[in-house]
Amino acid sequence: MNLEVCAMFLKRTKAAVVSVGVLAFLLIMAGGVACKKADETQTPAAAAPAAQEGTTLKEGLNDLSGTVKSALGKYFYISQHPGFDIVASGQVDTGDASILLDKEVKAKVIFNPATPAVLIAQNIELKEGESQYRSVFSSSDASIPADFLDQKARNEFAELKITNINKSEDWEGKGKGKVFGKLIPGAGGQGQAVSLADDKGKEIAKVIVDNMTEYARYYVKKLRLFDSFWFYLNIKDSVDKKLRAKNKEVFHADVVFAGLY
Length: 261
Hints:
Layout: H1 3-47, E1 60-72, E2 75-78, E3 85-87, E4 104-111, E5 118-128, E6 132-138, H2 151-154, E7 176-185, E8 192-197, E9 203-212, H3 214-222, E10 229-238, H4 241-247, E11 249-259
Parallel strand pairs: 3-5, 9-11
Antiparallel strand pairs: 1-2, 1-4, 2-3, 4-5, 5-6, 7-8, 7-10, 8-9, 10-11
């Protein structure tokens, strides 16, 4: 091998070594960046505060505080204590519980393990100013409202599977049941109806809402971010078969609860 060939061989070998070295360096750097990104992705989760524990209540009188995020009639709930509806049976200041909406409050409530989802307010104080509170509600009534529907009672409402507006047997004789649908303007005492759709989203029937309990209206308001949910119905008279085809209205009902399941 002459000197010229040797020089060329050494030059190519050096270039190859440099290339391999550069490639290795780039791989190491890329790995480092990837690890850094992975660490950065994991850091927020690791540094995030632990999830807030659920509200723990003892049987009898309890103190709660926070911001009221939904209220209607005698019902309201405090955002810091999800899972509990609070009842103020009686007049709140000069109105109902809706005057508490988006306000900070302190409340003394009674917890009964037999009806754990609802708390009965005995006293409510509304925050005014930096540290001052004004009493706006006081009661010694610890009874559960007549329109409250607990989980055990809800389990008695089986799903109604309405497949055709002329199949009266789908609802007649049932007494009660629940349907998944959307609340829309319609006929009836409430001027509303529950629209029922098939799996493709096509409307198949409507239930005329004659009445809706305050508890049900409160939950409809709580579920305002959802288009459709479950309506718990006391089934009433069927619409005459001759009239069903016009508006797809199949029967009258009273709504006693609304929920996501």
